[in-house]
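PROTEIN DATA CARD
Card holder: Anti-sigma-K factor RskA N-terminal domain-containing protein
Chain length: 83
Origin: Nocardia gamkensis
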Amino acid sequence: MNERQIDLAHTVALGSIDDEDHQEVQELFDSEDPVLRAEFIREVRDTKEALSALATATAAAPPPALRARLLAAIAAEQPPVAS
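Structure generated from the sequence above:
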């Protein structure tokens, strides 16, 4: 894989692929080169696993008052009016 393809795999793993790159990613998934397709899929998977490990390692409990503030903010919103 080239650098561009690796960057695309990371973008897919982050879930931040845009319309401009979508076609290029689809072409990689549809590639007739099974080695390239497998490498791309593996890079996406490995990146997702690394991001998950990082998120777990750096997770922090939210401040105790956060839940109450969120619930109060939700309660303050007006429900949508059915038309």
